[in-house]
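Example record

One chain of 235 residues, shown exactly as stored in the release files.
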Amino acid sequence: LFVAGTWAGFLLSMAAFATFLTRHPFKLALKDTQRGKRYPRTDWAIRFAAIYSTVALITGVLALVITEHAFLQPLIIAIPLALVQLYFDASNRGRELIPEIFGAVALAAVAPMIALTHDWQLDAAYALWGILMARIITSILYVRARLRLERDEHPDTRLPQIAHIIGLIGVIGLVIRDLAPVLAIVALVILLARSLHGLSQWRIPAPQAKIIGIQEVIFGILTVLLVGIGYTANL
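Predicted structure tokens for this chain:
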């Protein structure tokens, strides 16, 4: 919405948020059902999952009705990723790396969909999704490694660093092709520096996991601001 605001885009963002909210009550209801149990929370979880999914469906359909631009292609790609996450959730393995990444990338598909409602070219919309993927994947890998590091589990920190470098190279390629703003490179450089420091012996210890979470929210907001300003100001 920051870089391509439309009413259809607003409705799509509401649909994405409602979809995100659906997951938790859906998981609760699914787990209780798999155990053959029926608690008061089970009924409430079913109700809230139904409400959120209905909101997602209605707002998504309204977005489709009020816009003249096709935006469903990213959704078609995202659906299999979301189904993989649902499969892992159903198997009580939702916290594993693959479902975390697939689920987050699938939800981020709303960004190119919103861009397409603003009459963006398809390659530019996918470039925006690519920037978000670079942010999402590197963040998940970094947080997982950082949490293990704080628990003195001695994780292999090379994977997050390699992912950051690959993400940075990918964004540089998008900028060279004039599909992304230069400030997107700045954002990825900041994330790489954060990872190099945060996974090093010189890091400031984080005694609580929520501190790392708050830090990532801040870096996420900074990334969105830099990329958004880059697109709107052509920087």
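Notes: The first helix runs from residue 7 to 34.
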